[in-house]
Write a sequence for this structure.
């Protein structure tokens, strides 16, 4: 039977790729350092497959066909789709057998995801993998959740899907060792009046709740709370919720956080070691 050996929640700010030049305060270098440390921690868990939980940035889908939830499992995926993103383009190997299984299980458990057997992954998928698994050597399944276009599903729905994801992985008959990576946020305002702001105090509060496994406190946030304190970009905490739930709401380890003004986004990483001998031992 399969298991989740590692979980990661992190950001995917495009500026990590487009504006890597060091800043006077050294924030960017610290971000790259804690991503590198997370990469080593991930490798130590010896994963055999990866699931990336992200959101669409109007690259593969548009508003004439905008799924609330999509499971993508092409045989191969080449990205990033944004040709202007200055990171190496790479070909990811998909995991069609698992993707088909996950889709069927979701339908049997009262979720109604769309599916895609053709996908060009955008920066939301490729930037984290570039920093966390640059070898691009493991099969990848992509879960896309709507964090962009209202109406958005309530936060509780993403908690439920994360719990389902853990159950589906546990029932997968192959002895795979999955790493689940959820990406997005934290606080940022995109394309609106407050663009460029970062609410570092809110980010640190949110990270504390994640690391303590306080799902109830996160689920108590209202749409107005998120819009006011974390911006429209803060809606991407839904991807963190899914991964947090898949990790069983165990305490996570904060690998680092910086409010990088040049990236117009709070940059943080939380890591869960879910191996039997790791910090998250069962």
């Amino acid at each position: 039977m399969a298991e989740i050996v590692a979980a990661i929640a992190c950001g995917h700010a495009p500026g990590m790729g487009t504006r890597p030049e060091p800043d006077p305060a050294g924030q960017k270098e610290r971000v790259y350092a804690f991503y590198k440390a997370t990469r080593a921690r991930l490798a130590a868990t010896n994963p055999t497959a990866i699931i990336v939980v992200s959101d669409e940035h109007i690259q593969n889908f548009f508003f004439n066909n905008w799924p609330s939830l999509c499971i993508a499992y092409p045989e191969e995926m080449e990205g990033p789709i944004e040709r202007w993103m200055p990171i190496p383009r790479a070909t990811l190997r998909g995991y069609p057998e698992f993707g088909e299984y996950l889709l069927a299980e979701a339908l049997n458990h009262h979720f109604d995801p769309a599916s895609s057997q053709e996908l060009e992954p955008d920066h939301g998928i490729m930037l984290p993998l570039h920093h966390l698994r640059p070898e691009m050597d493991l099969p990848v399944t992509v879960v896309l959740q709507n964090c962009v276009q209202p109406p958005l599903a309530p936060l509780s729905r993403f908690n439920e899907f994360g719990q389902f994801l853990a159950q589906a992985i546990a029932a997968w008959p192959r002895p795979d060792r999955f790493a689940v990576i959820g990406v997005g946020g934290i606080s940022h305002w995109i394309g609106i009046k407050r663009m460029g702001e970062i609410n570092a105090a809110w980010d640190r509060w949110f990270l504390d709740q994640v690391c303590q496994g306080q799902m109830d406190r996160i689920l108590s946030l209202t749409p107005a709370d998120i819009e006011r304190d974390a911006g429209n970009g803060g809606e991407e905490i839904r991807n963190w919720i899914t991964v947090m739930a898949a990790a069983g709401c165990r305490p996570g380890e904060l690998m680092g956080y910086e409010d990088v003004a040049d990236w117009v986004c709070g940059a943080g990483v939380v890591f869960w070691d879910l191996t039997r001998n790791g910090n998250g031992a069962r």
